TrEMBL record:
Domain of life: Bacteria
Pfam family membership, one: MarC
Record bears the keyword Transmembrane helix: yes
UniProt family annotation: Belongs to the UPF0056 (MarC) family.
Record-linked InterPro entries: Multi_antbiot-R_MarC
Recorded topology in the membrane: Multi-pass membrane protein
Keyword Ribonucleoprotein: no
Keywords: Cell membrane, Membrane, Transmembrane, Transmembrane helix
UniProt source species: Parazoarcus communis
Protein name per Swiss-Prot or TrEMBL: UPF0056 membrane protein
GO cellular component assignments: plasma membrane
Length: 204
């Protein structure tokens, strides 16, 4: 398993920088302690979603009789759609609906829904982690995958904690540029997933 590739892919997919505008909007009425609590909960929830997907994702697929090759094709298409929207600097609309955003504004806690799910860790993230977990051959590789989830949770924590300064420093243009670059990475990964899945299904 290529550790650096997995880390960069998941980081680009989660794209905590692209979540900054929505985060600032959702926490605009919260007090500083509440914002810190939201950041802590969202970062932990992100790591938990990644870890659970890595450890139990394949079991869930077997229950529903879904092959990894089918997931690669379906997940690849989903990633390409997300990448296309990210390339157009539309990450928020790609993951949340206006109804979800409005409902979130009325909740006392928005850390898990919609901030973590689906804004940070949506179906594309879960399917990607499951695909990578299928390539694991040793227990320590699975441990590395879980650790990557923990590290990304830490990156989410740091990014959201500094959301205000980052937003002021980079501006909307800077955030859009970072989002487009991550979208380009995801588009390339989506093509790879689809190609591998199609080859596997064709040879079956």
């Amino acid at each position: 398993m290529e550790t650096l590739k997995v880390f960069i892919t998941l980081l680009a997919l989660i794209n905590p920088f692209g979540a900054i505008p929505m985060f600032l909007s959702l926490t605009a009425t919260q007090t500083p302690p509440q914002v810190r609590g939201t950041v802590n909960t969202a970062s932990i929830a992100t790591a938990v979603v990644l870890g659970v997907s890595a450890l139990f994702g394949q079991t869930l697929l077997s229950v529903f009789g879904i092959s990894i090759a089918s997931l690669q094709v379906g997940g690849g298409i989903l990633l390409f759609v997300l990448a296309f929207r990210m390339f157009n600097a539309e990450p928020t609309r790609a993951r949340t609906t206006p109804e979800e955003a409005h409902e979130a504004a009325e909740r006392s806690s928005i850390a898990v829904v919609p901030l973590t799910i689906p804004l940070l860790t949506g179906p594309g993230t879960v399917s990607t982690v499951i695909i990578y977990s299928e390539r694991v051959q040793h227990w320590w590789e699975m441990l590395i995958l879980v650790v990557i989830g923990l590290v990304i949770g830490g990156v989410v924590w740091g990014t959201l904690r500094l959301a205000g300064p980052i937003s002021r420093l980079a501006g909307q243009t800077g955030l859009n540029i970072m989002t487009r670059l991550m979208g380009l990475v995801l588009a390339a990964l989506a093509v790879e997933f689809i190609a591998v899945g199609v080859r596997t299904l064709a040879s079956a």
